[in-house]
Write a structure and sequence with these properties.
The structure holds two protein chains of two kinds. Chain A is an alpha/beta fold. Chain A contains twelve helices and eleven strands. Classes of the chains: A alpha/beta, B mainly alpha. At the A-B interface, helix 4, helix 5 and helix 8 of A face helix 12 and helix 13 of B.
Chain lengths: ~290, ~450
């Protein structure tokens, strides 16, 4: 597992070095993050976060607030550290032995990297949806019921049934699968699988949902459905979404953060970032000069 | 000519035709100046030519070798009858005596009459050997020349080569299958002979096993009983104890190795565990007999239990240790093969590592785990040495693990070792036991496959 993540992280870095535009971009002085990285109603506050894989630093001094009930998109070229940053928010990086996180990440004012914090409970509060749909090889019902069962969220079968149905409905999947709740989840189409994974995450009733390129493995129609879903979900959840698609970021998010080479370059309202970026690097990325 | 020399010559021809054909095609390509860039590599023409020189000759050689002996025998038999020599003994014995005279002293020791036959035998043998050599070499040479002459750049060499390779692979696969079928049939055949003497029902359901048959009617202990139940109960008892030890230990060590251990621990622990499988069973046997069995006996006596000095428990425990690697190694492999995304999915929902393992990883890896357990079980059922040394030979019908029991394989060994004639019920019983053991393991396998199909959770 560590290798896979490492490769993912190592490979793009090398690509960057060989790209002609990146050479030019490297000449640009790294400045403080421009824009508005902070907000008043913050759900998660990250302060001066540095992340290391063994001796390689993947994230440099990132400070960013994530507001309650907003959708914030993290964009940037491959290997810029946006996925790594995302994974620090629910301590998924703990599963990688060589990964080390410095700085403060506060969820509702409490540091999630403090000694007393149980990462398992944290992950129940900060759920995650992955790039590739990863339903468990169980029935659709059992997939959604997995989290509630682990955490003992329901008292009896009827309540569990209700919760499963509610989660599937919120994920916009219930109508499609109501007749085959006990068929294997792996038999669904890619888009349905991803919505099943979202339903599974919602069922635990988290406060924040992290999405790591949730639509990158899907076709345009399935992607549209996921985006629609994200728009509905922001009523109840705070959503952090990593995406490669700038159109997607523009469609679903209120704020956008641009990462480059492990640094947070610019944060701002999505409209402003895409129409009038303040930083040269952001502008170059938005206009497709590299990435 | 000796067979080895013949083979060597044929191989030489094959090598020769390989190089010649390759050379011919290379030259042809050079002169032809084909417009195509991609051409069949010359080596394929070489392979085809070499196989032309080799394969038919080998097939003919094999065939002639097989018919050589019957032919010589019949020739000598005709000679004997035509010369009116009185072969008053069995003809086979007579021929054997002559054929075994391979030194001058032995030949001199033969009677005059036999010496004549010996000379005749020698002549016939010489001529047949020469004929075989000539025929095989002729085929090889002719085909070499023919192949070299006919082969040209239009020969579909690659296609022919693929076909030949396919044929060789098919042959390899069918040898394994044919052997299995052959074994089953020979066991089946001998078993029917046994069931001709002992009723099949009294074999399958009889509860007494004492295969000592009397040679004379008035001999003591002439009552032979062939009830296989005690043996199968013993086998199952010991295998059960062994699986009771090896499945939990093996599975848990597999989980530790694949999910918890750091890479450096894993790189040491896994090979060490696998060494367990490499220890000869005889070593386990005396470990069981000399260390474990007395220990269990002492332990049992200290709490007031009577324990036989050879017990099913001792054999089962040691056998369990022996088969741990089968369970752990295979389970470790399949657990590691479960995609990382499933682990992350579960952890991301707030599951702990152990919840992830129990609810996601083990169901997903179930087929492989059951496969490992099955392999371990068949090792346990087939194991002989440990049982001989640690559990004894007494065919007691008991499920008490503290008593001495015996197993099917052990009885097969005792039935067939020593001087035996192959027509008594005693020796034939071994085949019947083998057949029943085979059927039992087959049924176990089918059940396990069924269980796996029902409960597996297939990931993509």
């Amino acid at each position: 597992m560590n290798e896979a993540v490492m490769n993912e992280l190592a490979e793009p870095t090398m690509k960057n070095k060989s790209g002609p535009e990146t050479e030019e971009s490297l000449n640009i002085e790294y400045t403080e993050t421009v824009g508005q990285p902070f907000c008043d109603d913050a759900k998660i506050k990250t302060k001066n976060v540095n992340v290391f894989y063994a001796d390689n630093q993947a994230i440099y001094d990132v400070s960013l607030d994530i507001g309650a009930h907003e959708v914030i998109a993290l964009i940037g070229p491959s290997g810029c550290g946006k996925s790594t940053y995302l994974r620090t928010l629910n301590r998924m990086n703990d599963t990688i032995d060589i990964c080390r996180v410095e700085g403060q990440i506060l969820l509702d004012g409490e540091n999630i990297y403090r000694k007393k914090q149980d990462p398992v409970l944290l992950r129940a509060r900060v759920g995650m949806v992955f790039q590739k749909p990863n339903p468990f090889p169980k029935s659709i019902y059992d997939n959604v019921a997995y989290g509630p069962r682990i955490h003992g969220l329901t008292k009896n079968k009827a309540e569990l049934d209700e919760l499963v149905e509610a989660s599937l409905t919120k994920a916009g999947l219930f109508q499609e699968v109501k007749d085959r709740l006990h068929a294997p989840g792996t038999g669904l189409s890619g888009g349905q699988q991803q919505r099943l994974c979202i339903a599974r995450t919602i069922a635990v009733q988290p406060e924040v949902i992290l999405m790591d390129e949730p639509a990158s493995a899907l076709d345009p129609i399935a992607t549209a459905k996921i985006e629609e879903l994200i728009n509905e979900l922001k009523e109840n959840f705070t959503i952090v979404i990593v995406t490669h698609s700038m159109q997607q970021a523009a469609r679903v998010s209120q704020r956008t953060a641009y990462f480059h080479m492990g640094r947070l370059i610019e944060v701002g309202d999505t409209d402003q970032i895409f129409t009038n970026p303040s930083h040269e690097l952001t502008e170059k990325y938005i206009t497709g000069r590299f990435g | 000519m000796k067979i080895s020399a013949l083979l060597f010559l044929v191989l030489l021809f094959a090598a020769f035709s390989y190089f010649m054909a390759r050379q011919k095609i290379t030259t042809a390509y050079r002169q032809h100046k084909s417009s195509h860039k991609i051409l069949t590599l010359p080596k394929y023409f070489g392979y085809v030519a070499a196989l032309c020189a080799l394969l038919p000759a080998l097939v003919v050689l094999l065939f002639l070798q097989m018919v050589e002996e019957p032919y010589i025998n019949s020739e000598i038999a005709t000679y004997i009858s035509s010369e009116h020599i009185d072969a008053n003994q069995n003809l086979d014995l007579y021929l054997n005596e002559i054929k075994s005279a391979d030194t001058p002293e032995k030949v001199a020791a033969l009677s005059e009459e036999k010496q004549l036959v010996y000379q005749r035998y020698h002549e016939i043998e010489q001529t047949t050997a020469t004929t075989i050599s000539v025929v095989v070499l002729a085929i090889s040479i002719l085909l070499t020349i023919g192949a070299l002459k006919k082969i040209n750049i239009n020969t579909p060499a690659r296609k022919v080569f693929e076909k030949i390779i396919e044929g060789i692979l098919l042959l390899a696969a069918s040898i394994a299958i044919m052997t299995t079928v052959g074994i089953v049939f020979s066991v089946l055949f001998e078993s029917t002979r046994f069931f001709g003497e002992v009723p099949i029902l009294s074999f399958m359901f009889g509860t007494e096993w004492s295969p000592q048959t009397a040679i004379r009617a008035d001999q003591v202990g002439s009552s032979a009983a062939f009830g296989a139940v005690p043996l199968f109960v013993g086998t199952m008892l010991i295998s059960f104890i062994a699986l009771l030890v090896s499945v939990p230990l093996g599975l848990m060590s597999a989980i530790y190795l694949s999910e918890y251990a750091s890479r450096s621990i894993r790189s040491i622990a896994k090979p060490v565990l696998e060494i367990l499988a490499g220890i000869p069973t005889v070593v386990y046997g005396f470990f069981a007999a000399l260390t474990v069995a007395p220990f269990i006996r002492g332990l049992g006596e200290s709490i007031g239990l009577s324990v036989a000095s050879e017990s099913a428990l001792a054999a089962g425990l040691v056998m369990g240790i022996m088969i741990i690697p089968f369970v752990s190694s295979l389970s470790d492999d399949v657990l590691s093969a479960v995609p990382q995304s499933l682990r992350e999915g579960s952890l991301g929902l707030g599951a702990t590592r152990s919840e992830t393992i129990i609810k996601v990883l083990i169901p997903a890896a179930l087929p492989g785990i059951v496969g490992g357990v099955l392999l371990a079980a068949s090792r346990a059922i087939g194991e002989t040495m440990i049982v001989v040394m640690a559990a004894g030979l007494a065919a007691n019908l008991t499920v008490n693990p503290l008593e001495a029991v015996t197993t099917v394989t052990v009885q097969i060994v005792t039935l067939l070792t020593g001087d035996q004639e192959f027509d008594s019920a005693k020796t034939l019983a071994a085949f019947a036991l083998g057949l029943m053991l085979f059927v039992t393991t087959l049924v176990l396998n089918v059940i396990a496959l069924h269980v796996v199909r029902k409960y597996r959770e297939q990931y993509e």
